[in-house]
């Protein structure tokens, strides 16, 4: 792409996007939760859409779903108690509405007790009715050992413990007849479900909208095997699934549009093809002939190599949608390492670290935007002007300033072990980052970490690395899914996400304080303050980039909208022109 | 070729009179196992390359071993030099049993039994100089002759009729005959008492062959070295050896002194062999072609040799007895001392083929008839 | 480097009886190390039904001469000069297709090593039948029958079955018989046998020689018989040509060459050859030295470095001048006819015993 | 009958028998030191124009490899400088050089690498250096193993031969590429890497050992065959008859005679190792960025970024590798011909 | 012949057995725990132990090996994913699919790639090689020899991307390589594999040109070929009957090696062209420490190699009666 003026106009657009993204999402009432969903303009039924995906779906069991491509799929096949409803046609405004539940939830005590009532006429794909027992089972089975990949928020809230301790609440799940006590979850009748928490959990409607909390049929639960052949309730059901190869979705005739305020059923079939790298899917869609004209990818972006070409061509650009992803990249400084205890050293790293290599490795400024803080533009509370180390102005780093600091600390030539993810991109940016750090007087030792176990390695408390890069995306548009899991010092343990091992009393105290706030706007402001404190004063995490993405679809695809909450194309409203 | 070789004074061997048995071989056998079988490989048979032979080589004499290809001559030679492990039988050298002696036990007599090989090309290491090749055996046996090894090598080169200046040359720079001389020099380097010469001249051209035969003859006579001379060329053996053994299919079928074997052979095979040699009659142009005994067919396979007398399948005198009973190697009446023959129905002591002995290939007979008819 | 005197009196090509006549043949090979003059001014004639024996040491050019007659050298590395006339037809310049018609048909060849000379991949019968099909236009079946018949003729027992065997299933002697059968299958006028018995045992050699003699009588072919064994040649040949270092040095009938040889080299050969009836008291008298290199052949008479009679010629002629080989009974030596006779009778013959 | 005028040995130097020859002619004095087969081969090789040119090309590559630091110094750049950060004006934000032809200019002779913008010229120099050094090391290790196992199996025979042969059979049945990939992490992990260990060195050692373990079989097989054939040669028997112990026979008689096949095979093996090493790096299990490596450059060249935007990048590593392999193969042919002039080409 | 085959197959089975041992050891030498990969974000020691248990990784290595062998021979039905009949390689850790069916899924591509390319390069390579040998020393020969020398020095990872860049991206003459099942759509199957075939065959054909040429020339110098000429057989006959037959032996030897490596998963090729065949599967199995898959691919590839060896040996026997009859 060409730099200069065009880039800046782009930036303005992005900022505008960000602005509306951070505006809060309201909780919808019963009316908003009633189906059917508003027609998409110009939509017509019929046709088949080909979906080109890089990764096969490893999990279809809702309890195991936590990655974005599976989440996108689950929009079509699974249903939960709540869901996000797009209130504008451009995918920018949302409210949380009841999905299987009649509304987004009723609380009488500021968020400690939540009551949900199921709609009438909701059925599983096999025609049997969905009942409160299914809801109870859904949550109880999350405590079973084999469920290990999905979200854990609600479980932790129920057990009122951080980390993996929650499992003790119901050690083996519901399978040997044990159940959660009524003090936690009760189902007074076939249609009512009551959640009770020790502390206020104002975010529950958000959490329940996560794909990971979609319902699982109690009768059809096959435990491990459910992961390959789940019972579904959404507008589509799985006709055939060849792991690693293909998947075919067909219409679910037991899905009643009148019960669903958020989904459509325009397309006859979705044909998924897996193993399509970004390059492959982009090339196929660009080709735009035959089935490629009705091809799309839910998760693949336009690959880095093609990105500038696609964006430069207006005809092609019209077939793309783009927006921020919820992820924020950050360089973690491992505070457990003795040498890293010095704040000057950390500041030196912060000044010296070049961000350009990272941006470059993932396709340039069309795909990555240099970050100032740890809160993404998609999350409430984002402040575009925050940039304590001048990264936005000097993305290649400020080695002079860094050197100065380092000299002051008397640590010139300090050995800095940089654990990097062993992918081509990781190799590329880590090398250049190391070069930038070395200019400031660090002695950087790069150590590769296999991509497949990267997060396992860096989430060990006793890892050997001084710095390593991670990215984190908010689970819902509130920083409450960012700051506590990442920066709460009491969360430090193997496998947890406090990668930099920050354990700052002020941060800890603030987290407790802000979590309890029930006003989302006020909370957002407060979260941002913690963010600024961590970046500027603790200097444990150096923000690198906000992830953006551009997706492309065949010319015959209609209803193409980038949905901010999904963080990609909204599959529910697609149709074939 | 120098007429008078400069040789060191003949040593005791030459003088103490031929007669002392130097090498005694009794019932020597070598069977090469044949692997095969199914499904597990095992020994399924044996090539009976040498199957019970008795030989005596006396000090200072040249003992010839003749026979057709594959009859076990080389195997015998290699058994005696202990390159092969005998299957059974005994080999004793100067009264010492060396049949199964190991390399260490053999060390003292290694220098006394040496070997000359057939192929002048493969018998010299192409990567070593002549000097190295000849001094190798001395080095191995730790022999340090007076004046040093190099001097000795030069002497040896002189003895075998090569230019001592060729010390630093490589084998490929020599012709076949010269290479064979190098081989002789190597064998002489250890001052051996017995040399096993396995077809030392059969790879050479006639004109060169004579040079080497003469050289060997000189060496044998003047240094008093005993020879086990292996060859298939009867004329060369006659020229070189005082005593001759004829082998057929792993067995000695006739043995005796030269005179006796060449003029009064008793075994039909020896007869046939002698009469098959094409000869130039230099004197009598009218004499025409000597009548020959023609053997039909080829030597049978040593894997399953015929029962009884091994020659019976090609022998025109064969009778039932030959198949049933193996003829012992004995002195026949009318033979000289030491002339032993293994035959139930020996020939008259003459080399003339008689009319009734001449057998033809059936096909040949038919051809000849064809020719005579028109 | 060498002064080569052309042969003065090469036999005239007009010689009517000659079936094959070779005139002043030169064959040289380009090799890595230089040019090898394998045949250097060779001339001879051969009449129908006769046998010409060619003797000579290894490397004297025997095989090359005969391969040249059939045009079997790769033209890229070989230079052929001179004439080869078969029934008056020039062969050195003949086209490949014409030569193809000759080979195996009018002129056939038997090679020294029957194991490598027969293809391991095809049955013996098929290999014999092939030239018959090609040259006689016979059908496959007829050719096969002919092959079986030929195998029977050369004395292979049970030819019907053995024709289906592969060469490696034959013994050495049988292979050579098969080679002979292959050579004779088209009833050739000229048979070239290149050391056909060298690889064989004496008893088998005798069988093969007898076979060849008898076959020649039946088929009436002319034979060129190459060997280095004088004994064999005495048995086989009508005429003998002795070759040395690429040229002929003596030629005559068998009787003449063996019983009154005229060239020092022939004398040397006879003297160095042990015989079953030679005198044991006399040592063999070898020819000193080794055959010359064909890359840098000696000047003048090729034999002069090994010749013990050089001084009797007088002057330096042996070194400078190559002696010519007269037609018919002749030897290429500077000694006078008288000298040759007296030397042979007085010095050589007695030693032969 | 064998011809005494042995073309192989060079008929020129056949010496006439001792007696007739005058004792050391003056001009012969210097000739008395005979020419060894090696010398003859050398003489023959020098006559082969293709071979000599190829040898020069190959030597050129080795010199370039050896002198890479020096050349880079003179040229004033190194392969590690991230020009995309140093000279951002030359690149777009994705790291593609803005100038045409991959940024080739008077300053960057071979252009700039898309991505981090390394200097292609020095990267190629160092890439050649690293590839060649690794291949050379593998070749050496392979030759050594080949000699030890092959000669031992061929000469000693018996159980050793059986064992070695089965080992060879087994290793040859391994799917080698897959095995490379599977064993690289294992081998790397064998060298337990402490906090500040240089991963490059570990990788190189691992690469060498893996390629070595799966690379020695063909040579060992050939040497086994050679030793087996040599064992039948009569000069070995001559040594045995003289009482030479097996050690001496192997050292003095066998080893000098396997030099030829070793030399010939090595000239074929080395380029194979170069391409194999490059293949591994291409797959990402060999050397990785920023260590310059030939194969890793191909890996880079095959990325979409380069294929879509900057094809020029592939040119220099590709051409240089083709030239190198061709030259080395021609050299191999020439070496073989020089040793064995009878083989046809 | 049958005995020979039987013995070879027996030997191959032993090698395969050893190979599984090696693969097992290799796997346990890998510095990665597959369970960790599956365990997900909230991995606890309990959960990890649990996964270890379900994968059977908590048993001793010999025990695991024994179970694996048993499964190969008799099948296993202890998997939560379902039964696993006789040649049971188990279920992939990563995809949870039966390894056998995954292999069978990927096999058609690998087979298409290998055999398609082989047919082309055999025809082209041997053809040009024969022409060069026939016209030995002429300009045709020289240019063929030089050309094949250069082309055979190219590597797939160079020529492949180059061909893609030129034929696909720049000129758009061809489509991106992709695999469609032959039975689904033969035309798409053909066009999709055209470029990989072309690239593979180009490189291999050049090698075969050189090999065929030198093998033929070597054979033409054999004495029995000279005999055939001396019999008056035409040049063509000698060339195509006598010399050709002998030159097949070295060619088949190399073909066996090449084919077996293509069948065992041409990893670099598949990477270059982005084709998901056995080679890719192999790499994935290593990446994800997927023992069952790794074992499956290893055994499969090795079996392909061994099978090719046996076929090559059988071909020797077919070509050369000396082998056949001994
Ligand atoms: N190492 C061996 N293994 C198996 N068989 C062998 C071995 N060496 C020799 N033979 C066989 O033993 C028999 C005798 O062989 P030997 O070499 O002793 O014969 P020879 O009389 O020397 O023959 P030639 O005249 O051909 O040299 C032959 O049939 C040969 O094939
Ligand atoms: N194709 C060739 N290229 C180079 N030199 C050759 C070629 N063929 C033969 N020679 C040489 O030509 C000379 C004569 O060889 P030829 O084969 O005619 O000898 P010969 O008399 O048949 O010997 P032998 O008795 O060994 O068969 C030899 O020096 C040989 O090395
Ligand atoms: Mg022998
Ligand atoms: Mg010859």
Automatic annotation (TrEMBL), chain C:
PANTHER family: DIPEPTIDE TRANSPORT ATP-BINDING PROTEIN DPPD, OLIGOPEPTIDE TRANSPORT ATP-BINDING PROTEIN APPD. This is Peptide ABC transporter ATPase. Keywords: ATP-binding, Cell membrane, Membrane, Nucleotide-binding, Transport. The keyword Lipid biosynthesis does not apply. GO terms for cellular component: plasma membrane. Pfam families: ABC_tran, oligo_HPY. GO terms for molecular function: ATP binding; ATP hydrolysis activity. The keyword Endoplasmic reticulum does not apply. PROSITE patterns: ABC_TRANSPORTER_1, ABC_TRANSPORTER_2. Residues 22-270 form the ABC transporter domain. SMART domains: AAA. InterPro entries: AAA+_ATPase (IPR003593), ABC_Ni/Peptide_Import (IPR050388), ABC_transporter-like_ATP-bd (IPR003439), ABC_transporter-like_CS (IPR017871), Oligopep_ABC_C (IPR013563), P-loop_NTPase (IPR027417). GO terms for biological process: peptide transport. Its main location: membrane. Gene3D superfamilies: P-loop containing nucleotide triphosphate hydrolases. It is found in: Cell membrane. It is a peripheral membrane protein. Belongs to the ABC transporter superfamily.
Automatic annotation (TrEMBL), chain D:
Residues 1-31 are annotated as: Disordered. Coiled coil: none annotated. SUPFAM superfamilies: MetI-like. GO terms for biological process: transmembrane transport. Residues 17-31 have a biased composition (Basic and acidic residues). Residues 128-332 form the ABC transmembrane type-1 domain. Its main location: membrane. Pfam families: BPD_transp_1, OppC_N. It is a multi-pass membrane protein. InterPro entries: BP-dependent_transpt_permease, MetI-like, MetI-like_sf, OppC_N. CDD domains: TM_PBP2. It is found in: Cell membrane. The keyword Oxidoreductase does not apply. One of its GO terms (cellular component) is plasma membrane. The chain crosses the membrane at residues 51-71, 132-158, 170-192, 204-223, 311-331. Keywords: Cell membrane, Membrane, Transmembrane, Transmembrane helix, Transport. Belongs to the binding-protein-dependent transport system permease family. PANTHER family: D,D-DIPEPTIDE TRANSPORT SYSTEM PERMEASE PROTEIN DDPC-RELATED, OLIGOPEPTIDE TRANSPORT SYSTEM PERMEASE PROTEIN APPC. This is ABC transporter permease. It comes from Streptomyces resistomycificus.
TrEMBL record, chain E:
Residues 107-316 form the ABC transmembrane type-1 domain. The chain crosses the membrane at residues 9-28, 109-134, 146-167, 187-206, 242-273, 293-319. One of its GO terms (cellular component) is plasma membrane. GO terms for biological process: transmembrane transport. InterPro entries: BPD_transp_1_N, MetI-like, MetI-like_sf. The keyword Cell membrane applies. It comes from the Bacteria. Keywords: Cell membrane, Membrane, Transmembrane, Transmembrane helix, Transport. Its main location: membrane. Pfam families: BPD_transp_1, BPD_transp_1_N. It is found in: Cell membrane. It is a multi-pass membrane protein. The keyword Transport applies. Belongs to the binding-protein-dependent transport system permease family. This is ABC transporter permease.
